């Protein structure tokens, strides 16, 4: 293989792909640390009185962190690989939504249906059980 063929192969490999710089990796790392520290602080300080609000805020931070990882570390954009990375992203999102919603549905129904006799019991009554 001549030097000209190697140069053409190298140019073809680089076409449409973005490679990160040290600065972009550091920006991604800093954003990841911040997006991890804030939910940790929210939970440890009990900032929100309602646990459901805390869970929703933590999930929002998780979604933002996934996007940061995809952009800064996986270099995903609409131009690379003729849009196939975007199709892979959409497919992954669909699978994650199906998996998470199905898991939440199963856990809710297991909690509701497994021990219905304990629904109205107080903690004091539960401690008296054999």
UniProtKB/TrEMBL annotation:
GO cellular component: cytochrome o ubiquinol oxidase complex; plasma membrane
InterPro entries: Cyt_c_oxidase_su4_prok (IPR005171), Cyt_o_ubiqinol_oxidase_su4 (IPR014210), Cytochrome_c_oxidase_bac_sub4 (IPR050968)
Transmembrane segments: 22-43, 55-74, 86-108
Cellular compartment(s): Cell membrane
GO molecular function, one term: cytochrome bo3 ubiquinol oxidase activity
The protein's role, per its UniProt record: Cytochrome bo(3) ubiquinol terminal oxidase is the component of the aerobic respiratory chain of E.coli that predominates when cells are grown at high aeration. Has proton pump activity across the membrane in addition to electron transfer, pumping 2 protons/electron.
Stated name of the protein: Cytochrome bo(3) ubiquinol oxidase subunit 4
């Amino acid at each position: 293989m001549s030097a000209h063929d190697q140069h053409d192969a190298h140019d073809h490999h680089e076409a449409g792909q973005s490679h990160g710089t040290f600065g972009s990796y550091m920006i991604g790392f800093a954003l990841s640390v911040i997006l991890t520290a804030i939910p940790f602080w929210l939970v440890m300080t009990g900032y929100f009185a309602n646990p459901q609000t805390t869970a929703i805020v933590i999930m929002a931070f998780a979604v933002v962190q996934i996007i940061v990882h995809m952009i800064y570390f996986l270099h995903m954009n609409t131009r690379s690989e003729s849009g196939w990375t975007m199709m892979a992203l959409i497919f992954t999102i669909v699978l994650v939504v199906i998996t998470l919603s199905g898991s939440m549905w199963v856990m809710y129904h297991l909690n509701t249906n497994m021990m219905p006799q304990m629904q109205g019991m107080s903690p004091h009554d539960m401690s008296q059980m054999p």
